[in-house]
């Protein structure tokens, strides 16, 4: 692994040839402590509870089990209970996005990245657009590849990455992937992408399932950072200095 979980100077040699910058959305482009996804989590639990007539605690256990085993709770509900996805996606993303604050540093750094920028998310496009608008990022992205575009097959399934790369004409060796879940970087690393794991700040309690933090020491992680804005700023400043130096 190339870096420690602190804002750091990345190895620019790994990013010099990157032409496609691929970002996960939730808990990656905005920090986990924003707790936006916690709202989604509650609505997923409520949906499972209503659908299967379960007590809240049992619904939450089933929700987490499906998330761990299938990549999304939606995928588990589709495979095991044959639900239609549209109502689920609309319901669980009907949240208050005002918790996401504008991030001028992040927006400026992303705008300066050489090449094209993409979102690859297990969420819906509508949810992604609202988050990006709050952050001030919307004009800067070439494509939002959401769970519907992935034919409802979530990361970390290899087919989803293959479909995303093919539809956008991206060469994996010229791409970098930014994610908050280590397991979602295994396929990108195998394909030849640079991989960056975004983790909570060292002073924050990690309110996550144990499996969500697994794999952070794996060889498929090239870099770790706890501040995406600082990390990207280091990249664009360094690449600019290389060009002018």
Keywords for this structure?
disordered N terminus; HAD-like_sf; 2 domains; DNA polymerase, domain 1; six-stranded parallel β-sheet; alpha/beta; Hydrolase of the HAD superfamily; Rossmann fold; HAD-SF_hydro_IA; 6 strands; 10 helices; hydrolase; 245 residues; Pyr-5-nucltdase
Summarize this structure briefly:
Pfam families: Hydrolase. With 245 residues, this protein is an alpha/beta fold.
Number of helices: 10
Percent in helix: 40-55%
Mean pLDDT level = 89
Q: What Rg is obtained from the alpha carbons, in whole angstroms?
A: 18 Å
Protein name: Hydrolase of the HAD superfamily
GO molecular function, one term: hydrolase activity
InterPro entries: HAD-like_sf (IPR036412), HAD-SF_hydro_IA (IPR006439), HAD_sf (IPR023214), Pyr-5-nucltdase (IPR010237)
Keywords: Hydrolase
Give a verbal description of the structure.
With 245 residues, this protein is an alpha/beta fold. It has two domains: 12-33 and 101-244, 3-Layer(aba) Sandwich (Rossmann fold), CATH 3.40.50; 36-92, DNA polymerase, domain 1 (Orthogonal Bundle). It is 44% helix and 10% strand. It contains ten helices and six strands. The protein has a six-stranded parallel beta sheet with strand order 3-2-1-4-5-6, with helices on one face. Helix 2 (36-52) crosses helix 3 (56-70) and helix 6 (104-112) packs parallel to helix 10. The two termini are 28 Å apart. The relative contact order is 0.20. One of its GO terms (molecular function) is hydrolase activity. Keywords: Hydrolase. This is Hydrolase of the HAD superfamily.
